[in-house]
């Protein structure tokens, strides 16, 4: 004779469970480890696909900042007839130079909206060359993620002489 699957416990009807059913109520350690491994694998794939995009964002930021600095340098030349010297550097865009040649038409706020020069996305100052390396009147450069001349990918130089 088989026992009924339910029994009364006070006024409640409760299902009888076997020992096997009670043991199967949770996940085994192996099942949990397999799920963790799958999640880790998926997270790794996602990170590998996102990492290059982060580097491209930094390069785009550097290009935009170099364009702003180049525009400010051209405005400086239009107002004064010359670019800042190598010694005056990009600092001449935010603080009026006191060494010759001193600009005669220097705006109160400087040539940038900020009183400080921006750093490149890798927290290094931009390089200012006058004249530029490719027959340009000037060149503004970021040496990329590695901070060294040359390189490729995220380490590639970003220059006003070659904005692409």
* CATH H-level homologous superfamily name of the domain at 57-164: Glycoprotein, Type 4 Pilin
Topology as H/E string?
A: EEHHEEE
- Note the beta-strand portion: 5-15%
Average pLDDT rating: 83
Q: What general form does the structure show?
A: elongated
**Highest-level CATH class of the domain at 57-164:** Alpha Beta
* N-end to C-end Cα span: 85 Å
Query: Helix count?
Result: 2
| Structural class category | alpha+beta
Please give the order of strands in the largest beta sheet: 3-4-5
How many DSSP-defined strands?
Answer: 5
What is the CATH fold-level name of the domain at 57-164?
Glycoprotein, Type 4 Pilin
Report on the biggest sheet.
3 strands, antiparallel
Rg of Cα set = 33 Å
Low confidence ranges: none
Which percent bin holds the helix content?
A: 25-40%
- Please name the CATH architecture of the domain at 57-164: 2-Layer Sandwich
Key features of this structure:
164 residues; alpha+beta; 3-stranded antiparallel beta sheet; two-stranded antiparallel sheet; 35% helix
Question: Quick gist of this model?
Answer:
The chain is α+β, with helices and mostly antiparallel strands and 164 residues long.
What does this molecule look like?
- The protein has 164 residues and is an alpha+beta fold.
- It has a domain at 57-164: 2-Layer Sandwich (Glycoprotein, Type 4 Pilin), CATH 3.30.700.10.
- The protein is 35% helix and 10% strand.
- The chain is built from two helices and five strands.
- The chain has helices spanning 19-23, 29-80, and strands at residues 6-9, 12-15, 127-129, 139-142, 158-159.
- Strands 3-4-5 form a three-stranded antiparallel sheet, with helices on one face.
- The chain is elongated.
- The mean pLDDT is 83.
């Amino acid at each position: 004779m088989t026992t009924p699957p339910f029994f009364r416990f006070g006024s409640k009807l409760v299902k009888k469970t076997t020992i096997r059913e009670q043991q199967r109520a949770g996940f085994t350690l192996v099942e949990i480890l397999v799920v963790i491994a799958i999640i880790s694998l998926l997270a790794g794939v996602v990170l590998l696909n996102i990492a290059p995009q982060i580097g491209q964002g930094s390069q785009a930021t550097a290009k935009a900042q170099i364009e702003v600095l180049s525009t400010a340098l051209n405005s400086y030349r239009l107002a004064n007839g010359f670019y800042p010297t190598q010694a005056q550097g990009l600092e001449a865009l935010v603080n009026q130079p006191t060494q010759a040649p001193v600009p005669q038409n220097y705006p109160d706020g400087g040539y940038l909206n900020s009183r400080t020069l921006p750093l490149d996305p890798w927290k290094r100052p931009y390089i200012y060359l006058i004249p530029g390396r490719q027959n340009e009147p000037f060149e503004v450069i970021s040496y990329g993620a590695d901070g060294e001349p040359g390189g490729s990918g995220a380490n590639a130089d970003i220059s006003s002489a070659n904005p692409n």
